[in-house]
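assembly run, all chains below
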Amino acid sequence: MQEENDAALIARAKEDPEAFGLLYERYVDSIYNYIYYRTGNHHDAEDLTARTFYRALKHISRYVDRGAPFSAWLYRIAHNLVANWHRDRSRRHIISLDELVTRALKRDEPAALAEERAEHDLLLQAVRRLPPERQQLLILKFAEQMSNAEIAEVMERTEGAIKSLYHRTLVVLRKELTHEWNGREEITERTSDE
Amino acid sequence: MNEKRVVEVLTTHAEGLIGRQEALRQINMTDEERGRLAPLFQLADQLQQSMQPVRPSAAFVRSLGKELMDNAKRQIALTKRLRRAMLIGAAALGSLLSIASVVGAVMFVVARLRARAQTRAIHAPAGRTGSAPA
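ok done. output:
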């Protein structure tokens, strides 16, 4: 059986809860994935994913198809909620449960694994410090494995703009990481000298 | 190596990383290009390894799905009820307006008739209405 397309489901979702359920099932993984990489923990990813779909449900009757995919609308809702979450979080320092568990695990793991994990964490932290649209680009490209054309549709830009944004993002990220690693090495050298 | 070529090579490399190998084969990179862009390729490789797709737990998806369905049913029922109430309200208002306009029209006609009767009474010849001559 052929899957019903998004436009038909959206039209039906205004009157039929089942149709909204199908849209939810179609996009929940992608939205969760996006939010997870923007927040860095499962607890907030679940909370913000739920809020994204509640907001979508509330406003679906007013949804107007302007040619962009439905997922672009969902990503925009998620993007705004994540921005608010970052704003609230910057006001008070919160350590998530995931972070506490990770810290506890780090204490017990072998040195090589710990170093690998440190590199991985450093990279993801550097990604999270990038401007939101650059983070979105990297998440859609690597975590969602979308093509440049698909990313362009979601981010409502041209494919050329996406390609050049990717290039600029890699250059900035590399500079940032080099700077970070040099800083770490300096600290390690200083502590070993002492 | 101009910037346009750098952008093209980097994005093709990234497409290759996410399983679109045919794009990588078409680009024909020189050794010099490969050497110059090696640090950025390496960074893209690290990103690809660190940003593996993360999926929500099945329990979370199920429970949120159920909550949303319940909510959607409530929302649609509420919208229908609101629409029906608005329809009834509009019909009642329409009926009231038509009754009021009929009453208004009757009152207008009665008032006009009364006014005409009064005018006729004022302008009528005295003989016809007055007492008999002495």
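Chain B has five helices and no strands.

The two ends of chain B are 133 Å apart (CA to CA).

not gonna interpret more than that til we talk
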